[in-house]
Amino acid sequence: MLGYGAVLVLVALGGTIAVVFVGLSRYLGPRNANAAKLTTYECGVEPVKTARERFPVRFYLVAMLFIVFDIEAVFLYPWALLFRELGLFGLIEMAVFLMVLVVGLIYAWRKGALEWE
Amino acid sequence: MITLQHYLVLSAIVFSLGVAGVLLRRNALVILMSVELMLNAANLALLGFARQLGDTTGQSLALFVMTVAAAEAAVGLALVLALFRGRGTVNVDEVRSLRG
Amino acid sequence: MGEAILFWFFGGLTCVLALLVIVMRNPVHSAMALIGNLFCIAALFAMLDAHFLAAIQVLVYAGAILVLFLFVIMLLNLKDHELGNARQTATKIAGAILLCWVAFKLIFRVMPSTTAGFPAVGDDYGTVETVGRFLFGPHLLPFEVASILLLAAILGSVAIAKKKLW
Question: How far apart are CA C18 and CA B15, in angstroms?
Answer without folding.
Answer: 9
